[in-house]
Amino acid sequence: MTDDILPVLASGCNLRTAGRETGGETVCGAFSTAGRPLFIVGICRGSTSWRYFCSPGQVAIQVAGGENLHFELARVNFNVSRMNDQLPAVTVLIAARPGQVEIKAVTAGRQLDYPPEKLEIIVARGKQPSVQRNQAMRAARGELIYFLDDDSTPGPDSLRRTVAAFADPKVQMVGGPNLCPPDAPFLEQVFALVHASWLAFFSSRARYAPVGARRESGEKELILCNLIARRGPMLELGGFNEALYPNEENALMDELKKRGGKLIYDPGLTVFRRPRPSPGAFCKMLLNYGRGRAEQFRVYPTAGSIANFAPSVLCVYLAALPVLLWQTHPGVLPLAPLALYGAALLAQAAALVRQGGLVKSICAIPFVVLTHVLYGAGFFKGCFTTLKPAGKRPVVEVVLENVPLGALKNFGKVE
């Protein structure tokens, strides 16, 4: 039986699902058991199906005829280094501020379970993230780029579980949500509820909470603080538009999709990242989000951005409401949209209770309203900002630092 088991690249797939999909040639990925990653994969030929995991280093399969066969994976004749050779080279790219000492993403990056000869970490220091990331991409040696914000903390298995998706040459990006750490302060957990609420962020709530199953997606659900992408196609498009920040990644994602590329949302590919620490910082973020979306729409107009006009429409309605009430006195028709909006807020509060509890859900609702108003105001501002062409933008100093990992001498090369 062991002669029929051949090593292949770990995919992190669900064993039972894989068994149904592949029929007589079952592909399995023993990616974890009892919380311990194994990253061992075999192909079992014939009419077999995976039954269950055993203790680390063991697997039980059920062969045709009902016989259960247990075997030690350690006894299977394969070479782990040959498996590593099949893995693509990856550069973890982290944008940071000049002089920043604590960079959580660096610590987490060094703990990624990935062959050190296939991994490098670049910290790009500067004051314009789009410029920093572009320069780092050009200097990177990885086939894939794992974008992390300076405070993103991925799990050790993030790369292992994701790189197999790039076996499909059409896949250009794979990303997942960034989650609020469970030990974050109360106010930050309230902000996290707002981020994950449908009424505040619509489909983009998938950036802040696992939503649905792994699927082909787009820029509304992916976020740059937790994104793995092919380096080559991004550079072919010139990298990020340095006139845009934020939303530089959204524009690039749209361009990749126009070229026929696939963008994958994986709810299991998560990082922990704390929301803004104060109401002032939260409000500033919302204004910037609205401004960035409007600037993106001016440069790269797409139908997908039309829904982002809704908060601006709400702002116009609220501003015009006193005049409408005065002109229709004592009419109540102008209050109908406001009543519907209030009902939607109550429904959203009720939906959030299961996720965050009653107190946090009640506290989140005023910030949902604030999200709409400030995003809408920022969107208006973004419609009239000046976007400087490349030749007229100030020169931004960027310092690239390679984080030592050990054996980087032959990074990305197979001897």
Describe the secondary-structure layout.
Blueprint: E1 6-7, H1 15-22, E2 25-33, E3 36-45, E4 48-53, E5 58-63, E6 68-72, H2 80-85, E7 90-96, H3 104-110, E8 119-125, H4 129-139, E9 144-149, E10 153-154, H5 158-162, E11 171-175, E12 178-179, H6 186-195, H7 198-201, E13 215-216, E14 226-230, H8 231-236, H9 248-258, E15 262-265, E16 271-272, H10 279-299, H11 310-327, H12 336-356, H13 358-382, E17 399-403
Parallel strand pairs: 7-8, 7-9, 11-15, 12-16
Antiparallel strand pairs: 1-3, 2-3, 4-5, 5-6, 8-17, 9-14, 10-16, 11-14, 13-15
Helix pairs in contact: 6-13, 10-13, 11-13, 12-13
Summarize this entry quickly.
This protein has 415 residues and is α+β, with helices and mostly antiparallel strands. It has helices at 15-22, 80-85, 104-110, 129-139, 158-162, 186-195, 198-201, 231-236, 248-258, 279-299, 310-327, 336-356, 358-382, and strands at 6-7, 25-33, 36-45, 48-53, 58-63, 68-72, 90-96, 119-125, 144-149, 153-154, 171-175, 178-179, 215-216, 226-230, 262-265, 271-272, 399-403. The strands form four sheets. The chain has an eight-stranded mixed β-sheet, sandwiched between helices.
